[in-house]
User: Fold this.
Amino acid sequence: MPGHVNGLSLAQALGGGVILWSGIKGEPLSDTFKGLLSGTAPTASSSQAINTTSVESAAQTDLSTGTPLPGITQGMSSGITGTNESVMKQVAAQHGWTGSEWTALYNVEMAEAGFNLTAQNPTSNAYGEAQFINGASEYAQYGGNSTSALGQAVAMCNYIEQRYGTPSAAWAHEQEYHWY
Assistant:
């Protein structure tokens, strides 16, 4: 129904607002929640600087536990530009993957999609650089998106870190099974 907002969407929007406000204020997420629960209205002077480090940190926090989430986000990767390959290399470096780890990641990518953002497997829904089996929507699950080289690189690197730990381990799996 047009104009209808469900409870989950509203909760997600409010949660995002709280995270953003916490980052703007430069205070821990728990303090922002405590203030809201006590009925204290959020205030800030118009000259207050936004602490982008805090915003990025808050965006990587598990709201239920306050613990950091693994991986990097697109916001933390800002300023990365270039060819699809160079974007992937820069995101890999943020994970600490240089030298032989970059080579392993490069090998995985060449086996999967060759840095083609729109690569599609003809026999499955696999899509993009990471060839995520659930298609374009799976990129968001790993902190990225399917619409840009940066979004795809972030998601692929986060996936590899979560599942294998390193590109070398992912490459070993790719060599043995022809998928990672």
